[in-house]
Write a structure and sequence with these properties.
This protein is α+β, with helices and mostly antiparallel strands. The chain contains 18 helices and 16 strands. The strands form 3 sheets. The chain has a 9-stranded mixed sheet.
Amino acid sequence: MAEEAAVRAQAEAVRRLKQDKADPDEIAKEVAKLLEMKAQLGGDEGKHKFVLKTPKGTRDYSPKQMAIRERVFNAIITCFKRHGAEVIDTPVFELKETLTGKYGEDSKLIYDLKDQGGELLSLRYDLTVPFARYLAMNKITNIKRYHIAKVYRRDNPAMTRGRYREFYQCDFDIAGQFDPMIPDAECLKIVHEILSDLQLGDFLIKVNDRRILDGMFAVCGVPDSKFRTICSSVDKLDKMPWEEVRSEMVGEKGLSPEAADHIGEYVQLHGGLDLIERLLQDPKLSQNKLAKEGLGDMKLLFEYLTLFGITGKISFDLSLARGLDYYTGVIFEAVLLQQENDHVEESVSVGSVAGGGRYDGLVGMFDPKGRKVPCVGVSIGIERIFSILEQKVEASEEKIRTTETQVLVASAQKKLLEERLKLISELWDAGIKAEVLYKKNPKLLNQLQYCEDTGIPLVAIVGEQELKDGVVKLRVVATREEVNVRRESLVEEIRMRTSRP
């Protein structure tokens, strides 16, 4: 058959290309062609090997991993609710134009969905832009909300460090016209509470202001048109040494070496109120309206943070830039610190676990009349936190329970399935978390072993004698202690013995 001959010829061509170590792209193209020809031929030939894997930059979560994840979510949601936040949800995809032009250089990481003859859509890149769209669309000018959902970025992810193409964000935002820096200070307090509560280790929250950055760029001689692109270079200072950032500014982005050196003098400064006071006296910065405004607000912010008692973990850091285009005022980022060893004074950062800032112009971009709604918010880096906690659990060999079952309904003799089912139904109806083994006549030993394996603390044993006496034998798995409990008191007894102290 002509088709089979063509397939053989194509297979031979692929073999030759591989032998000659041809360009990988060309080989891939010819292999794809070969697979297509085989598929058209039908039969077994067309069944190319199907690899079972999750797509690049994604992962599955086992019950154990989900148990750790739930623990983290609960801590975060409890904190958001403590601060009076409501919750919203938005679609996982947005109109492409909603997301375009909001993320600066990161726009290339947006996943566009295939054009299927309708609206042009993209997967959401974060939760902030959809939030701004939601406010503008519903004409909301005042809300304190949290939103926990998955976002998507076409990144080349380092999954070991908790970076993915599909990942959760946990956002808390305050929208509305308020007196300066009060909501901003609350956002920082929230970050402090969550990181302290999760016991991830020592952390530092770096704070800066977009206006201070822009003022600094202006006095250093950066042209207006280069502000944003130089800003994204400065943003890399936590990952690259100053020399490399400087050469990117000068070499790739065409900044004059003098301007770059001026920037270098400022971006290596970090401190607290004393540094703010010093910069307010700085002959160049104090002449710049934007920088002066930013420094005034920063001073106010530090006064509020002092009242909250958290300035020990806060650093005013002029190198903090946060690459997103929509920030207009205060910006912040929380990093975990790792003591290298006892001899080193300086702590080393092991990556960002939260970030946020003020974005007063974003909602206005969506409003037909350009009405602005000032906003400030924080995003908790749940994936990074989750990676760290997972490693901690592995290291400590802590046994994680993946279910919340309080009691297993068991029997020691045969022919008691009906009694077990009657009892478990009573327990379920009373709101007790209970399980039963799906066998007519399970061995008592197997039932007890199941409790050991899954961490179920109690066993309710029904036997003929117990049924006659109107009691249930309640066994504590850990101590093997057994007590007879009247059937009508069983629910109360189980609640009492499994309620958390």
